[in-house]
Amino acid sequence: MRPSPAAAGVSGLGFSAFTERNQPRYLRYAAARLGVDSAVRSAVEATFAFAQAQWHWLLAQPGLALDVWEELRYQVSCESEHYPPVIRNVARLYDRLPQTSADSVLLCRHLGLDVDEASDLMGVERAAVEAGLVVAHRNLPFLVERGCM
Q1: Which of 17, 57, 131, 146 has a CA between 20 and 30 Å from the CA of residue 109?
Q2: Torsion angle, CA of 42/65/24/137, rounded to 10 degrees?
Q3: 3-state secondary structure (DSSP) of residue 57
Q4: What number of other Cβ atoms are within 10 A of residue 89's Cβ?
Q5: pTM value?
Q6: 32 Cβ contact partners less than 8 Å away, ≥ 6 residues apart
Q7: What is the DSSP letter of 84?
Q8: CA neighbor of 55 nearest in space, from 19, 31, 79, 102
Q9: CA 118 to chain CA mean position, Å
Q10: Contact of 22 with 121, CB cutoff 8 Å
Q11: What is the pLDDT of residues 96-147, one digit of tens each?
Q12: What's the distance, CA 106 to chain centroid?
């Protein structure tokens, strides 16, 4: 069943608001992982194309932000196969830590997001970001400190 024109308009506004809110942070994350402008744009554009195509389904899911974040991770991962990381130690961070831990470090320690903003962006609980930072600190303390990347 297709949504009514009014519902589709509201849904379109919701997607536009989601994009406007998250696009700058997605771009910063992708840039920190990829560094190459064309790859950054490609990953973020593909992520939003996925989200737009699946928007009605995503709205019915319990973790819209998480689902779109996972797509961004996937797109960045695909692009990273073609470009070496430009930030020192990013590859080591992602090679040695679970993705949530690596993302938590990158977002909180390198990009300067607070834990609440990082958890909101990733679509996970605050405790998951905090735990990710603890795991990272235990395993790679020299990479967790701000400015060590």
Answers
A1: 17
A2: -100
A3: helix
A4: 16
A5: 0.87
A6: 87, 90, 106, 110, 111
A7: -
A8: 19
A9: 9
A10: yes
A11: 999 999 999 999 999 999 999 999 999 999 999 999 999 999 999 887 775 5
A12: 10
Whether the Cβ atoms of residue 102 and residue 136 lie closer than 8 Å to each other? yes
Give residue-wise pLDDT tens across range 35-61: 899 999 999 999 999 999 999 999 999
CB neighbours (10 Å) of residue 39?
Answer: 21
Q: Are 35 and 86 in contact (CB under 8 A)?
A: yes
* 128 C-beta neighbours (distance < 10 Å), count: 19
Long-range contacts of 42-45 (CB under 8 A, 24+ apart): 42/75, 42/79, 43/72, 43/75, 43/76, 43/78, 43/79, 44/72, 44/75
Instruction: Quote the CA–CA distance of 40 and 14 in Å, as a whole number.
Output: 24
| Separation CA 99–CA 132 (nearest Å) | 9
Query: Is the Cβ–Cβ distance between 103 and 93 less than 8 Å?
Result: no
Give the Cα separation of 116 and 145 in Å (integer): 18
In angstroms, rounded to a whole number, what is the distance separating the alpha carbons of residues 132 and 43?
A: 24
Q: Which residue has the tokens 């589709």?
A: 8
